[in-house]
């Protein structure tokens, strides 16, 4: 049983209370994406947001990640209010967006390099996570030498290499990445919980 | 079914290795490793042969038309001497390339030296101006976007000065730096600086938002984003602008030298014009064209090595 404050904080998971998001607030092209959203995700829980295209799923993920701020309400993660992005709340986008000037290993270890971790340690981590998705042979290749599905897998392990406590995943439906979900060894997901949320559409 | 087993059955999903793709001018690189010098040379020749062939045909056609015009009397040999005339008396024209060889009978080696050093001086001025212009415009462009106040103060002034031709800056160059190399380099710098600064700002604004978002999620600071994401992302675009402006910089140096910075190919052009020496004019033009073209090739090679991730096309 972990009793230190950090673990206790992590155990609290994500909490959205009365979250609103209006894109372009105050301008003529304002768009109400989310109105009064409440959502609680406990640590270790696996939640799927289902909804028609354009209903605000990605918007909510961006808010939880901290890339955008809500126009109303609060979002908490690990007991603290979310004000900016952090590698602890990793967001995986629809496009892999790997840096073309870096090799696969350097892409995966990008977050670690920002933290000042030395080169051999970074390579060890990169090798380990790439092995999980069967791409260890491609560790020194460039992104343009990989197929689209392979790039997506690299993007996933890039996020996982930072060992986030919250993993946010936009549209994991491409088969190459979706089948990774049950076999991810870094997080144990309990599959099957579906959260329904009220949205503006 | 474990992940590894799935991987094995999907091995056809893997991207083919780079070397199998035909590239560039449409010929396949020699597949077998070169086992001797001659086969390596043949492989090299095969790669460059189409380019050499078409280059020769293109230039040869142009020269041929010129010769034909001369043969039927349309081209006055005094005004428009065809290649076989202005290339033939190279030894004669080479004298004009430096003060030391202009009078009297200078030996061929001295003439060759003066021609080479003249070409060298012009080229070095361009290269130094290119380098200084690139570095300073990149720095200023980044500062404009990273320090709001600096941007507000300098951007209007830069945009105002940008359309002013470097030729108009010539008196400023001479007053500030006197006649000589510094003035020539300054002109190249001016020719590049404003355009490259505006290009830098534009490139920074157009960096893929996803790249920035990934960096932010990874916890990058403002400066880490600059060095690890923005700079690599904008360098390809900036290099293209630099190469496009190379010819403009080259022309500015020549104009500056013609108007009077003391030495260089441009000055020879001016001398030829003033002495009505059309052979020298065309001979120097040929030299200018060759050197300018070579500079572009050099820059292209630098780009290919420095910016290794940019897909290489024929241009």
- Which regions of chain A have little confidence, pLDDT < 50, spanning 5+ residues? 183-201
Integer-rounded radius of gyration of chain B: 26 Å
CATH architecture of the largest domain in chain A: 3-Layer(aba) Sandwich
Number of helices, counting only DSSP H or I runs of 4 residues or more of chain A: 8
Kindly report the CATH topology of the domain at 120-306 in chain B. Answer: MetI-like fold
CATH superfamily of the largest domain in chain A: P-loop containing nucleotide triphosphate hydrolases
Give the domain tally of chain A: 2
Q: Report the helical percentage of chain A.
A: 25-40%
Classification by helices and strands of chain A: alpha/beta
Query: Can you write the helix and strand succession of chain A as a string?
Result: HEEEHEEEHHHHEHHE
CATH A-level architecture of the domain at 120-306 in chain B: Orthogonal Bundle
Q: Give the % helix of chain B.
A: over 70%
Question: Residue-averaged pLDDT of chain A, rounded?
Answer: 79
- Give a short account of the largest sheet of chain A: 4 strands, antiparallel
Shape category of chain B = globular
* The CATH homologous superfamily of the domain at 120-306 in chain B: MetI-like
| Shape estimate of chain A | globular
Strand order of the largest sheet of chain A: 2-1-4-5
Class of the domain at 120-306 in chain B in CATH?
Answer: Mainly Alpha
Major sheet details of chain B: none
């Amino acid at each position: 049983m972990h009793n230190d404050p950090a673990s206790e904080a992590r155990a609290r998971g994500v909490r959205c209370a009365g979250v609103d998001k209006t894109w372009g607030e105050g301008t003529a092209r304002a768009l109400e994406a989310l109105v009064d959203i409440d959502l609680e995700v406990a640590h270790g829980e696996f939640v799927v947001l289902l909804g028609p295209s354009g209903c605000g799923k990605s918007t909510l993920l961006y808010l939880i990640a901290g890339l955008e701020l809500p126009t109303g309400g609060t979002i908490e993660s690990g007991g603290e209010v979310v004000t900016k992005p952090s590698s602890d709340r990793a967001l995986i986008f629809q496009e892999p967006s790997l840096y073309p000037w870096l090799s696969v290993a350097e892409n995966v270890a990008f977050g670690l390099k920002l933290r000042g971790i030395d080169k051999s340690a970074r390579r060890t981590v990169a090798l380990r996570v790439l092995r999980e998705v069967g791409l260890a042979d491609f560790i020194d290749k460039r992104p343009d030498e990989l197929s689209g599905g392979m790039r997506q897998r690299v993007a996933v392990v890039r996020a996982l290499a930072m060992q986030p406590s919250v993993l946010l995943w936009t549209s994991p439906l491409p088969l190459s990445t979706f089948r990774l979900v049950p076999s991810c060894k870094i997080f144990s997901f309990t599959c099957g919980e579906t959260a329904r949320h009220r949205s503006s559409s | 079914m474990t992940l590894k087993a799935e991987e094995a059955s999907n091995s056809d999903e893997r991207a083919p290795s780079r070397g199998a793709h035909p590239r560039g001018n449409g010929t396949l690189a020699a597949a077998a490793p070169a086992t001797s010098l001659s086969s390596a040379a043949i492989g090299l020749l095969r790669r460059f042969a189409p380019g050499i062939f078409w280059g020769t045909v293109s230039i040869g056609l142009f020269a041929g038309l010129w010769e034909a015009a001369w043969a039927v009397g349309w081209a006055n040999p005094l005004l428009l001497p065809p290649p076989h005339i202005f290339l033939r008396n190279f030894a004669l024209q080479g004298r004009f390339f430096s003060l030391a060889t202009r009078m009297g009978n200078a030996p061929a080696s001295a003439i060759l030296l003066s021609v080479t050093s003249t070409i060298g001086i012009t080229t070095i001025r361009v290269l130094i101006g290119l380098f200084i212009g690139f570095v300073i415009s990149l720095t200023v462009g980044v500062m404009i976007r990273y320090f709001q106040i600096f941007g507000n103060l300098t951007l209007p002034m830069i945009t105002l000065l940008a359309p002013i031709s470097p030729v108009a800056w010539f008196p400023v160059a001479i007053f500030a730096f006197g006649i000589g190399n510094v003035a020539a380099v300054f002109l190249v710098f001016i020719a590049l600086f404003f355009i490259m600064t505006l290009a830098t700002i534009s490139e920074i604004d157009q960096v893929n938002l996803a790249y920035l978002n990934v960096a932010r999620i990874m916890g990058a600071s403002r400066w880490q984003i600059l060095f690890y994401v923005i700079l690599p992302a904008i360098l390809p675009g900036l290099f293209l602008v630099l190469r496009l402006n190379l010819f403009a910089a080259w022309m500015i140096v020549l104009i500056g030298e013609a108007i009077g910075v003391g030495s260089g190919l441009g000055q020879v052009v001016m001398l030829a014009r003033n002495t009505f020496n059309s052979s020298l004019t065309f001979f120097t033009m040929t030299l200018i064209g060759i050197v300018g073209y070579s500079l572009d090739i050099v820059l292209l090679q630098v780009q290919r090595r420095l910016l290794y991730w940019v897909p290489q096309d024929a241009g």
